[in-house]
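Late entry, written up from scratch paper. The run itself happened at the end of the previous shift, but nothing got recorded in the book at the time, so transcribing now.
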Amino acid sequence: MNFRVEFQLAEAFGDKNRWFCSQAYGRKIEDREVLLSYYIKNGGAADFKKRYDQAMGEKNRWYCSEFYGREILDRQILWEYYLDHNPGGAAQENPRYETDGAQAELSSTC
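Output as recorded:
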């Protein structure tokens, strides 16, 4: 499977999306189809695309190449560099994930 798809599915099935999906349904959600549908319908996929495009963009490619001291073209290295060095890169930037108390409750739940 393409690593881009793997990373996106990991987000869709991850703790953060699972928590928000469960909150929306008022019960614990484990069904992967429900989680994936929620992720897509609530902006997770669009947010991932935006972050992925930034990670593959010229600016991140330059910083990543400077960091490693050589030109970096490998998409997985660029993505991992983006997640490690871009504030908010690993976290979805969708405002629904930043509600009052949501982060604290998510941390204590997961």
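Confidence is low (pLDDT under 50) at residues 97-103.
(Scratch paper discarded after transcription.)
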